[in-house]
Amino acid sequence: MHQSSLIANIALDRRHDMPLYRQLYGEIRKAILGGQMLPGMQLPPSREFCLALDISRQTVLNAYDQLLAEGYLRGSVGQGTFVNEDLPAQVQTRKFRDVQVADSVVAEEQRGLSQRGRRHIDPRGSTRFHEGPVRAFRVSMPDLGLFPFDVWARLEARHCRHHKGQLGYGDPAGYRPLRELLAVYLKAARGVNCTPAQILITSGSQQALYLLSTMLLDVGEQAWVESPCYRGTTAALHAAQAQMCPVPVDAEGMDIAYAAGHFPDAKLVFVTPSHQMPLGMTMSLQRRMALLEWAQQNAAWIVEDDYDSEYRFGSSPLASLQSLDTRQCVIYVGTLSKVLFPGLRLGYMVLPETLREPLIQGKSVIDKHTAVMPQMVLADFIAEGHFGRHIKRTRKIYAERQACLVNCLRRVLDDELECGAQDGGLDLAVYFKKSRDEERIIQAGLALGLELRGLSHYVGIPGQVGKAAGHPSGLLLGFAALDVAEIERSVMLLASVFNNDQGFTHTA
Ligand SMILES: Cc1ncc(COP(=O)(O)O)c(C=O)c1O
């Protein structure tokens, strides 16, 4: 089958419950299993699918991702995506009967699941996890080699020896001494105004996003999200059957006037004002005040996801939104994943008084409470000064690493990449200066051992209202977990990816 006849034979049903990317995935798989697409054949560029089927590029990329992950396709350096030659022989010889089986596999995956359940398995709404050893340029990853695990182990051993009966079922809100210490820390570091009773410890901030999405929104109610947006947020909202309203971001962060004009009925706003995920800009004070005013007038909640504000390089951070809130409409969310390590799974919310009891009840329905031992160890880690020292040390090192990355990129990739905001964080957004196929760059990087994340990963919101704003094409490069030598080496590899790439091409 020729590439163009593959597209012509594909029919997508927009009224069907099954997401479009999943339908596209099923259609391509059917063509491979049915022998219409033979091993080694090249698939059309994603843009041709978009034009012919009137679907977003993210829909095509999601379908390709799934087929690549399952081994039906392979990507190769600078040459696009091909049907895998290494498909098992029995797959290659399957004909019509098996094609029907393939169709039913898709349906079967969803059989027995509720509407809500289906939304939890929809990869467009799902988050990704890190697989294999850390390599350049994994995103959102602190350097675990810098963490004082010896100190952590000593504190943990002490609690194991002298636990004084504290390891039974605990307080669903979290370990009280930890909440007291966090209240003091958040006041000093972020100006957050709260009592320890307003703090709810969660199993990572992802659990906070899930609890807030499910407990504050009814099915079909609207939430503003930044466009582009962190996938953990859209996954939680998608699972909660909310309607997402994508709001463009610019140099000042979320465009509040646009959002208020287009989505006046929203009940909830998810925002990353300190360091927009993934583009990295800081929300201006004017926008912060406008957002607070809108939320107060419209009785909406604002979720302030302050996921990596500890890592601010150079200028000091603007005060948190929560500290400017006079009407208790901001819910402040934080995580220990960046500042300590992601596998710890500790996060927290600072709740307005009226939400305190309901959210604690909701949390206890999910998992009774977060594991007590890590909370006890963390409390000691903070009280004995290790926490403050670790932040200070890593902030300095990460700032040096970011500077090294920016310098290397300017030296060898200045024609190709423009560096985005550099105020802080663990990742740097870079924009393509020329027309490039993001997916092809990612696949070519992979072949050289680079882990690249395209900015399009953060757009294409499932079930969104209205159109997503055009978004810049580029990459998000994690630098914090890489030492300077590794950064220099990896930028050279990245340069060879661009040198070997032909630019964006249309193939018939
Ligand atoms: C915007 C944002 N929020 C929160 C998190 C952290 O999530 P968790 O606390 O569940 O590890 C991340 C991690 O990448 C993030 O990028």
Q: Could you explain how this protein is built, in words?
A:
There is one protein chain. The chain has 19 helices and 14 strands. It has helices at 3-8, 20-33, 46-53, 57-69, 89-92, 96-110, 115-121, 149-161, 176-190, 204-216, 231-239, 256-262, 285-297, 321-324, 353-367, 372-383, 386-412, 438-447, 484-500; strands spanning 73-76, 80-83, 199-202, 222-227, 243-250, 253-254, 268-271, 301-305, 330-335, 347-350, 417-419, 427-432, 453-454, 474-478. 44% of the residues lie in helices and 12% in strands. The strands form 3 sheets. Strands 3-10-9-8-7-4-5-6 form an 8-stranded mixed beta sheet, with helices on both faces. Strands 11-12-14-13 form a 4-stranded antiparallel beta sheet, covered by helices on one side. It has a two-stranded antiparallel ribbon with strand order 1-2. Among the domains are: 3-112, Arc Repressor Mutant, subunit A (Orthogonal Bundle); 162-385, 3-Layer(aba) Sandwich (Aspartate Aminotransferase, domain 2), CATH 3.40.640. With 508 residues, the chain is an alpha/beta fold. The radius of gyration is 24 Å and the shape is globular. Keywords: Aminotransferase, DNA-binding, Pyridoxal phosphate, Transcription, Transcription regulation, Transferase. InterPro entries: Aminotransferase_I/II_large, HTH_trans_reg/aminotransferase, PyrdxlP-dep_Trfase, PyrdxlP-dep_Trfase_major, Tscrpt_reg_HTH_GntR, WH-like_DNA-bd_sf, WH_DNA-bd_sf. Residues 18-86 form the HTH gntR-type domain. This is PLP-dependent aminotransferase family protein.
